[in-house]
Structures are given as structure tokens and as C-alpha cells.
Specification:
167 residues, alpha+beta, Ubiquitin-like (UB roll), DNA polymerase, domain 1, 2 domains, 35% helix, 15% strand, binds FE2/S2 (inorganic) cluster
Length: 167
């Protein structure tokens, strides 16, 4: 093995805040954030679909902003705050308002897309709230255009988001 290749595979410590807790793990320079969260930190709620930024299944929040975990390197989140779907519910298991609306409207079937949609939606709804804006159905659909769902036909997801956005 060449020295260059050995260097590329060196594991680096990565310290960050995940869902409000200080966490530490190790990542090679090329390890994706999705793999770091799932395999190094054991947070398997973040899903991996296309791995090239199209499906949205891997979406997490970095410093509050929804980001593709498959387009982010683990070493880029050093000293950052990352929120994943595991942090949405309260510590006693009580679902967030958004999760409860998804449940009520049957807005998931296989659930593969759901974590990513929830994380994008949480960021989007927070920003709308700060602006005092109530979205139209078309605006909800535009936001969802960054996510692929093969099961639901999107209608129940739109209903859940409209309910939360207009509560
Ligand atoms: S797995 Fe990241 S966008 Fe599809
Ligand atoms: S619920 Fe199956 S992909 Fe969306």
C-alpha cells in the first residue's frame, strides 16, 4: 500500500453535537456523514437511498439547516450541531407535532423516505413560522420536490404538512 493511500485511510476523531448531546467518533477523510451517523454513532434513522443527492432520504439538519447527509463528509461536521430524526420526539417518546400529524394522516407506508422528509419539513416549517407565512398547498409540494416517495403519492404528506403549517 502506498504512503498516500495509507494516509487517505487514516481515521480522524470527529467531535460534534448530535440531537443535543456531545458525541465523538472516528471517520476516514472520505467517509460520508450518513455512514458516520449510521455505522459509527449507531443512528440508523437516517436512511441512504441514491447516495448522490437526489432522493432526499439522507436529509439531516446541520446547524439547523436541512442538508443531504450523502453529500456531506463526516469530517465537515467537526464542532457542528447535527439533528437527526431520532431527536424529533421528546425523550419520553412523545411524538413531535409534525410526527403526530404524519401518523394521523397515514403519511408514510414503507417509511424509507420519511426521516428525510421530516427533517426537511422541520427546518422549513420553523423558517415559515419565523416569517409568519402560511404556505399554500403548491408551496408544500414545491418543498417536497426535493424528496422522492415511492409509496404514498404524496397526498397524505401534503395534508399532514398543511395541518401543521396552518395550526
Ligand atoms: S441518499 Fe442522499 S439524496 Fe439520496
Ligand atoms: S413511504 Fe415508502 S418511499 Fe415514502
Amino acid at each position: 500500500m502506498t504512503e498516500k493511500l495509507m494516509k487517505a485511510q487514516t481515521m480522524h476523531p470527529v467531535t460534534l453535537e448530535v440531537n443535543g448531546h456531545a458525541r465523538r467518533g472516528h471517520a476516514s477523510p472520505r467517509m460520508l456523514l450518513t455512514d458516520f451517523l449510521r455505522h459509527e454513532l449507531g443512528l440508523t434513522g437516517t436512511h441512504v437511498g441514491c447516495e448522490h443527492g437526489v432522493c432526499g432520504a439522507c436529509t439531516v439538519r446541520i446547524d439547523g439547516v436541512a442538508c443531504r447527509g450523502c453529500l456531506t463528509l463526516a469530517v465537515q461536521v467537526q464542532d457542528r450541531r447535527v439533528d437527526t430524526v431520532e431527536g424529533l420526539a421528546d425523550s419520553d417518546g412523545t411524538l413531535s407535532q409534525l410526527q403526530a400529524a404524519f401518523k394521523r394522516h397515514h403519511a408514510l407506508q414503507c417509511g424509507f423516505c420519511t426521516a428525510g422528509i421530516l427533517m426537511s419539513s422541520a427546518d422549513w416549517l420553523e423558517r415559515l413560522k419565523q416569517q409568519g407565512h402560511k404556505p399554500t398547498e403548491q408551496e408544500v409540494r414545491d418543498m417536497l420536490s426535493g424528496h422522492l416517495c415511492r409509496c404514498t403519492g404524496y397526498t397524505p404528506i401534503v395534508k399532514a404538512l398543511m395541518e401543521v403549517a396552518h395550526a
